[in-house]
Amino acid sequence: MAAATLYDKLWDIHVVRDNADGTSLLYIDRHLLHEVTSPQAFEGMRLAGRKPWRTAANLAVADHNVPTLNRAQGIADPVSRLQVETLDRNCAQYKIVEFRLADARQGIVHVIGPEQGATQPGMTVVCGDSHTSTHGALGALAFGIGTSEVEHVLITQTLIQSRSKRMLVRVNGQVEAGVSAKDIALALIGRIGTAGATGYAIEFGGAAVRALSMEARMTLCNMSIEAGARCGLVAVDETTIDYMRGRPFAPRGALWDRAVAYWRTLASDPDAVFDRVLELDGADIVPQITWGTSPEMVAAGDAGVPDPATEPDRTRRAGMERALAYMGLEPGLPMTSIRPDKVFIGSCTNSRIEDLRAAAAVVQGQRVADNIKLALVVPGSGLVKRQAESEGLDRIFQAAGFEWREPGCSMCLAMNADRLQPGERCAATSNRNFEGRQGQGGRTHLLSPAMAAAAAIRGHFVDVRKL
Amino acid sequence: MQPLIRIKGIVAPMDRANVDTDAIIPKQFLKSIKRTGFGPNLFDEWRYLDHGEPGQDCARRPKNPDFVLNEPRYQDASILLARRNFGCGSSREHAPWALKDYGFRVLIAPSFAEIFYNNCAKNGMLPVVLDEESVEQLFREVAASAGYMLEVDLPSQSVITPSAQRFGFEIDAFRKQALLDGLDEIGLTLQYADEIRAYEERRRRDAPWLYQSPDA
Fold this sequence. Notes:
The complex is a heterodimer. Chain A is α/β, with parallel strands linked by helices. Chain A contains 15 helices and 19 strands. In chain A, the strands form five sheets. A five-stranded parallel sheet of chain A has the order 5-4-3-6-7. Chain A has a five-stranded parallel sheet with strand order 17-16-15-18-19, covered by helices on one side. Chain A has a four-stranded parallel sheet with strand order 11-10-9-12. Chain A is globular and about 55 Å long. The relative contact order of chain A is 0.13. The longest helix of chain B is centred in the last third of the chain and has 14 residues, at 193-206. At the A-B interface, helix 2, helix 3, helix 5, helix 10 and helix 11 of A face helix 4, helix 6, helix 7 and helix 8 of B.
């Protein structure tokens, strides 16, 4: 058999049928649902008199809208409440497993899937959310879909799809201490742009990726959608298998051994051919901070804000000028002189236990600077929160002046009460710095958890390696 | 789904790259549990001067006179001309729902984000990819004449200008057919139910752990 990439292996094993028009009907092993993109799918299903194909393939949780404070009082916003209650009702009606708000397992859908072992190597994983690419870290074919496709998966357990091209991003060598998976992702997006991987499935490889923990790989794959990729992938290795062991939804006993034997085949063959190969040197990657309104508008943490005048492309130059005006920044301004008003540590990109540990290590024994109006830590799930508390991380954050909240998407997209006011500037560990993303008129700078923590303590951006 | 075969309509230009789905429909409107009614809030933060919340009467809100869709000449536009990477970001299908509810049926850009492209096609909207040069020419032509219209013909896969210049575009055979027929894709897939069941049986044998529930 010809040498195959990991992407092609995962694709081929999930093909139910190849259609004459070049598309394939692809089987979906795991369907994750949340409250924002599912109500219209359930309604469509009901109106057409249809029902779910395989209930047990679905797992649901509310995360986008949920409050991160005073949860015992329920959801104050009636519109948000209706959406969450609609998910509860739909899951109850169709007997879909849902982790409700009071459940310790509730959290951000892309945190709880791997945490529960509900997303596994070799699976196809979809969710009505673009950051579904996160689960590719496990060696799963995972991608975001729209609501029409949510309905399609609910009813048929399949999707009609076209194969993507394959891109290998090889990060050679090792990254320096203080440089995280978030910095690798932002450096890559800075290099290829937010449409740089459109049409591609990215596989991340190389020594620096092999050395990443499972959670760091999730951060990397999570951000692959910000490069335009359909999905991100990391080959299965011992790190993956160790991570899966003992998780509630993971196979047990003899089935575990069979599963592991299969999972070990989930890597690209040595002579597999990629449509595009990109090499990065881990040693060249430094902590990154975005300065604009697209994740590709990113610079080294110790650099200056770039000058649009040096950009030859007219559309891109206009975009830079508009971004600087929106962000209230001048060309040449040192990034380290920028002072955020708020700090947000959380989101499906960076709210796992290792993220919180990295931030807490910077915060320990320090105080949040006076100019920071709000510093927020929002754990990715109830179980992450519990683990952090057992390690005393909550006390470290709170002693420094951070608020310690309940799990959810929170200020990443500001669908709940956590949001920026117009003109406010935020150091955020989330994934998008679009205009208005964190609240109308809000200004977002994306960076790693350690860099966000350092900004909170110093009151301005700083290269965490120089603390 | 409403079939789409041939559209002739006024073209509105959106002259900026990387227009994301947060801009197309801001998050506060995603709390709706319906598929319709998003049109008045399309590009809400750019289109109005005040802060938008669900349930407002948008006809009474102060409009931003500098925003392109508020210019009288682009009223009733059904074709949106855009720049590269249109629709990037969130997978929210509320973005195509809002564009369609507003009245757009065709979007033309040098590139689209993939999930957004797919979501458009599922809603009877045609995303047309033309090269940068052609898009640039169209931007110039739109700016030059008020009431500028294009004709978009899906069967022949062409965009036709008022001076009868034709730009060909690519679209995969499945999406084309689905748009032309206004196809119920789920109904189509359910015709293969036996093949899906046969696949499951095979997988259950080869990879039984995939069918094990956590309580088992």
